[in-house]
Design brief:
- By secondary structure, this protein is of the alpha/beta class.
- It has a single domain (about 5-210), classed as P-loop containing nucleotide triphosphate hydrolases (Rossmann fold, 3-Layer(aba) Sandwich), CATH 3.40.50.300.
- Helices cover about 55% and strands about 15% of the residues.
- It has 8 helices and 5 strands; from the N terminus they run βαβααβααβααβα.
- It has helices at about 15-30, 45-55, 60-85, 95-105, 110-125, 140-150, 165-180, 195-210; strands at about 5-10, 35, 90-95, 130-135, 185-190.
- A 5-stranded parallel sheet has the order 2-3-1-4-5, with helices on both faces.
- The longest helix has 25 residues, at about 60-85.
- The chain is globular.
- Bound molecules: thymidine-5'-phosphate.
- Thymidine-5'-phosphate binds near residues 69, 95 and 100.
- Thymidine-5'-phosphate binds near residues 11 and 104.
Length: about 210
């Protein structure tokens, strides 16, 4: 059986940059791994991602949104995560069930117990071996997203989640921190306000421990 590692955080926390760098590190070490993420990660998931992030999809109900994230995850596990774990690889996954609890539970105020049950059903109770929470203040995170979009020539704060108000992102951040406190063995809370190289060093230190284990 492989090792399942997830990367979580609010928008602009730098987790996507860090997952790529973590992959480079494992490659250097010669450890077999896959880098994947949600929503997306499969052909069906990519279709769901378009619906979920479409800023014109304002009529999407809270329950529909929750179930679409769950559907994306069920497919992702079947097609990508479970086979890689069975091959004995390390799976680095950009967001997983904790994102659903933080965003749909805390953020969208869906009943947390129901959200957990739906996540459990979708994931067949698969729980990551380690979860990195890249912690940053909501205003700093959103500033980064805006800067990144401007540099890439895109419209800033474009998708349905990025467009949410600051308070929404602050609630998500507190939700994530509450989850980390509940499961402090699994979560590694990383101060993501520091520069990329420093954050990467801390991630590698934890990965090193996992590889040895
Ligand atoms: P990404 O920007 O990390 O690719 O994620 C896309 C958005 O989807 C992000 O705003 C967080 C949101 N999201 C949820 O609301 N619930 C979930 O379960 C997942 C996986 C993502």
């Amino acid at each position: 059986m492989g090792v399942f590692v997830t990367f979580e955080g609010i928008e602009g926390s730098g987790k996507t940059t860090q997952i790529k760098k973590a992959g480079d590190y494992l490659k250097e070490k010669g450890v077999p791994f896959v880098v994947t993420g949600e929503p997306g990660g499969t052909p069906v998931g990519n279709e769901l991602r378009k619906i979920l992030l479409d800023r014109t999809a304002l009529s999407l109900s809270g329950r529909t949104e929750l179930l679409l994230f769950a559907a994306d995850r069920a497919q992702h596990i079947k097609e990508v995560i479970a086979p890689a774990l069975q091959r004995g690889e390390i799976v680095l996954c950009d967001r997983f069930s904790d994102a659903t609890i933080a965003y749909q539970g805390y953020g969208r105020k869906q009943d947390i117990k129901s959200v957990r049950e739906i996540c459990d059903f979708a994931s067949q109770s698969l729980v990551p071996d380690m979860t990195f929470l890249f912690d940053i203040s909501a205003d700093q995170g959103l500033d980064r997203v805006t800067d990144r979009a401007r540099r890439a020539g895109h419209v800033p704060l474009e998708d349905r989640f990025e467009r949410e108000h600051l308070k929404f992102h602050e609630i998500i951040r507190s939700g994530y921190l509450a989850l980390a406190e509940e499961d402090s063995d699994r979560f590694k809370v990383i101060d993501a306000s520091r520069d990329v190289a420093e954050v990467h060093r801390e991630v590698c230190m934890h990965l090193e421990g996992l590889i040895k284990r």
